[in-house]
Design brief:
The chain is an alpha+beta fold and about 200 residues long. It is built from 4 helices and 8 strands.
């Protein structure tokens, strides 16, 4: 039974339902406009922050670019600076590396068929820490007293593929150290090769 277009049970008429849906649609549209305005404001703020960072000398790439952990590195001299080469071999004739010698620098290119892992003794513990680092420290002391120029301090660079050593470059070598370094590098590689073969 209906009274003036309404059900006696109190249920809403179809017209009232449509009206409520329309009102809800209006609310949704309003909320959407508010969100769009908020998003636009956020974009403006982001542009402002970017501009402020650029003014301070920052670039986006610099903010996220990771800093790799590497061994002390210098730019290796061109190969043309090396006057002669010497193969470094084991007592049985296995090639360990080719050593290129310059006036005050050497470049050691390890044999491609051998994997000399940087963690294999005595590479880091002896060649790097007890020989190269110690020579570098002595040169720094000599530079501090004026015995040598600061740009003549021994420097070295170790090129790796993951943990495998591929090249070693040593620069600013004093004449009296050249023979010592050549022998030290050969001895180190021989010991590493022995450990690689025995698996110890």
């Amino acid at each position: 039974m209906y009274v003036k277009g309404k059900k006696m049970s109190g249920e809403e008429t179809e017209g009232e339902k449509v009206k409520k849906v329309a009102e809800f649609k209006t609310l949704l549209e309003k909320r959407m406009r508010e969100m769009e305005t908020e998003l636009e404001g956020t974009r403006v703020l982001l542009e402002f922050v970017d501009a402020a960072l650029l003014e301070k000398g920052f670039k986006r790439a610099e903010l996220v670019k990771p800093t790799p952990t590497i061994l002390p590195k210098v730019v290796a001299p061109p190969v043309t600076e090396y006057e002669r080469s010497v193969p470094l071999k084991t007592a049985t004739g296995d090639l360990l590396a080719n050593l290129y010698m310059g006036e005050d620098s050497i470049r050691v290119v390890l044999a491609e068929d051998k994997d000399f892992n940087i963690s294999t003794p005595p590479f880091m513990s002896f060649l790097v820490e007890r020989v190269l680092v110690k020579m570098q420290e002595k040169d720094r002391e000599a530079a501090g007293t004026g015995e040598i120029a600061p740009d003549r301090i021994l420097s070295y660079n170790i090129v790796r593929e993951r943990d495998v050593v591929r090249e070693i470059t040593i620069q600013n070598i004093r004449p009296e150290r050249l023979k010592e370094l050549k022998s030290t590098v050969r001895w180190t590689l021989e010991k590493m090769y022995e450990k690689t073969k025995t698996g110890s």
